[in-house]
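Before a computer can learn anything about folding, someone has to put a protein's shape into writing. The three-dimensional part falls to structure tokens, numbers that each stand for a local backbone shape. The protein below has been through that process, and both of its lines are reproduced in full.
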Amino acid sequence: MKDKEKIFKLLRESAETPQESLAVEEMISKIEGIMPPIEVVDDNIVKCSGLKFSRNKTGRFACTISIYRFIWTYFNGEIPDGYEIHHRDLNHENNDISNLQLLPKTEHRRLHKPVNEENEAKKNAKHYCAVCGKEFKTRRGQLLYCSAKCRRIAEKIRATKTKICEMCGKEFSTTSDARFCSRECISESLKKRETKICPICGKTFSDIVSNHRKYCSYECANESYRKSVTRTCLNCGKEFSIGVTRNQKFCCRECFHEYGRETKTCPICGKEFTVKKSSGRKYCSRQCAGIASHKK
């Protein structure tokens, strides 16, 4: 071991140019069994000795040569014809030189035969549709449905809601905004009428119970948009005019934002700030809240 270190020292001292120094260090790393550094750019790209390796369709990193073949060649030279590189632990992500082994093609295929058969069995496994129960084959993993039609049926089943019929009071399931359980109830609702009073002209009119009609005619409906009433602002108490159909409760935006707010004093910096009464906020900023938590 000491003689090896002396040889390494002499080799390093004999290098006169940066290129020679790089070649010497590469040779020493091969002798010592040190892998070239692998730089991980992202999940699909790595770099090794200046080469860029991208993940291919099989999930392995490759450029013009696979990364495990490159590492084997880096330490041991060219791979002979009829031979392949085998991963001892069967993990293709572990490309350490100690995990790589040179084997003849026939022996390499024999070692991987059980794994390949298991993968093939998974790909050709029979599946049963969750909707119609039909048996089908797929190579796309664990599919639940045999067709797009069954998938749409399953989506409708998931979107089904339980409602109460406005006419007979019976519970029913639906995927839409239906208000009645059957056509009979719809017909019955159209027959049932009630008397309403128009809020604009005061005239009484008959209308279907299921309708939400408020006015006796289009003229009164249009008049309701033009008609205004006087209301009192909930914040400042000022009176303001607004259309009958609008639910505005404040005279301006400032009153809307000020309503239900109070002024507090920050216990850390003493600064005053406004906050909603329903809020449990104690501090004026995140910085003050952080200081308070560190004090605890």
The chain has a mean pLDDT of 78. Residues 105-123 form the longest helix (19 residues).
